[in-house]
Amino acid sequence: MNIGTHKQLFIDERFFASVNGVYLCMNPPVQHLEPVLRADRPWEALGIGSYNTVLREADGRFRMWYDALLEGGLPHEGARRLCYAESTDGLSWEKPELGLIPFRGSTANNVVAPPLERQSQQGATVFRDERAAPAERYKLWTKFQPTDHQVAAGVEPGLWAMHSADGIHWQTYPGQPNPPDTMCDTQNMLFWDDRLELYVGYTRVRETQAYGEAATMGVELNAAGQGRYRAVGRITSPDLRTWSPLEIVFEADAADLAIPVPDRSDDPRPVIDFYTSCALKYPDAQDVYFMLPAAFYHWGENESPATFDVQLLTSRDGIRWQRAGDRRPFLRQGPDGSATAGIIVANPWPVPVGDELWLYYSGRGGSHAEKERDGRNTGLFRATLRRDGFVSADAGYGGGEFTTPPLRFGGDCLELNLDGSAGGWLKVEIQDAAGRPLPGYGLADADAVTGNAIRKAVTWQGRPDVGELAGRSVRLRFVMRDMKLYAFQFPQGGR
C-alpha cells in the first residue's frame, strides 16, 4: 500500500493487519444549541429549510447559501428559494440586500435563485470548482420547479445545474434538467472527485431495488416489482453533461427494517429510510469519504414519530459504505421544545477553523408530519469536531496494540493526530515487511508520545527523521494505552 505523504484516517480496519485491545470508536461532535441563523424575513415565513451550504473562502470569509421556506401558491407559486448570507466568524451572519430578484414587488432581499419569483428551488448544494473557468467557478445542483405557465409551455421540472462567477449571480446550464428523469427531492450532493477525476453526484433514487432484495422486505411493490421509499443513488460525469447510470449505494437494510418499535401502523412501508445523504470526499486524506445521512423514523400512525437524526458512514471509494458507531446517532436531536427537537439534517461542507472542523446542520422543532409549520422554531446550527476526528483507533485503560500491513511512505517524519489525556501514551515501532523491528526503530528505541495534539512528531531516541526508510516496504506497530489515535501521516520536512 503506497501512502506517500498523504494523511491516513482510521475509518475502517484497513490498518489492522493484527490487533489486540484496540478498537474503532465514532466520535460525535459537540452540538451547540444556539442557532447561528434564524428566520426573520418575509420570504422565510415558514422558516429555514433543511438544505443549506456553508463554505469558507481563502480570504477567511464564511459564505452561506440557505433554504428559505414560505407558503406555496399564488401570487408567488414557488414555496422555496435560495438565499445568501455572509459572516466573518461563522457565527454572526449578515443577510445583504442584493437587489437581484423581486419578492412581492421589491428586490431589497438576499434571494439569489431561482430567477423568477413564481419559480421554486430546493435542495441546492453549492461548491467551488477550482478546475473550472472563472465564469463557472461556483456550481450548484438543485431541484427546480418552473412556473405553472412554463410547465404548460414544456419546461420540465427536475434536477437542474447552475453556475456562477461569484456565487451570487447564477445562470442555468443549457439542456436542463440534467440528467433528465432523476429523483431530486433532497439535498443533491455534487463535487469534483480528484481521485477519480470525475464529478460525483448523490441524489434520491426514484425507485428502490427489485423485489427479493433485503431492503424491500415488507414494502408494497409497484407494477415493476419495486418498492417506493427513500434511498441514496450515485452518478458520475466527466463534464456535467453526460452521466453514468444511477446506482443505489445506500439504503435501509435488513438490520434497519428489523429494529424494535413500540407500535406499528398498517402502512406497508419500512419503519426507517434515509432522507438526505450529505455524502462528500474528505479533502485532507488520501481516499476517505463520509456520508451523514438523515435517518427518518416513521413507524406509527401519520408517520409518527416522523423525526430525523444523523448517522455517520465511511467509505474508501464513495460506493461501498459502512456504518460507524454501531448505527448510533452522529448528530442527535436537541432538547424537547427546541428548534432541533424534531428534525435535524447535516449540511455540506465540513469547514476547517483552526484545529477544528465546523459542521453546520439545520433544525426544526416540529415533525415531518406536522400540518402547521412555525418558522420561528427552525434554524441553522453548528457542531464542532477536532480535525480528522470522525473515527479513532482507541486503546483502553489496560492498553493495546496493532500492526499495519506493509506500507510504502514518501516523507521524512511521522506525525500523529492523537489524544492521550493525562495518562495515555503511545509508541511506534517500524518493522520490515516480515515484521522484524528495524535497527534504531524498535520498541525499545521509540520515545513515548503523550498529550493531545493535531500534529505531533514521533521520535526514536530523540530522532524524528525516517527519510532513510522512504520507499521501503515497512510495517508500523502502534503500542498504546488510554489513547485515541485519529490519523497518521509521513509529511516531507515536518510542519
Compact summary:
With 495 residues, the chain is mainly beta. The protein has helices at 148-152, 254-257, and strands at residues 2-4, 8-9, 18-20, 22-26, 30-37, 47-48, 53-56, 62-69, 80-87, 111-113, 120-128, 138-145, 158-164, 170-172, 189-193, 198-204, 232-237, 247-250, 272-274, 279-281, 289-291, 294-298, 305-310, 313-315, 322-323, 343-346, 351-353, 356-364, 378-386, 391-395, 400-403, 408-409, 415-419, 425-432, 452-457, 474-481, 483-489.
Molecular structure report:
This protein is mainly β and 495 residues long. The chain has helices at 148-152, 254-257; strands spanning 2-4, 8-9, 18-20, 22-26, 30-37, 47-48, 53-56, 62-69, 80-87, 111-113, 120-128, 138-145, 158-164, 170-172, 189-193, 198-204, 232-237, 247-250, 272-274, 279-281, 289-291, 294-298, 305-310, 313-315, 322-323, 343-346, 351-353, 356-364, 378-386, 391-395, 400-403, 408-409, 415-419, 425-432, 452-457, 474-481, 483-489. The strands form 9 sheets. Strands 2, 4, 30, 33, 35 and 37 form a 6-stranded antiparallel β-sheet that branches. Strands 5, 26, 27, 28 and 29 form a 5-stranded antiparallel β-sheet that branches. Strands 6, 7, 8, 9 and 10 form a 5-stranded antiparallel β-sheet that branches. The chain is globular and about 75 Å long. The relative contact order is 0.16.
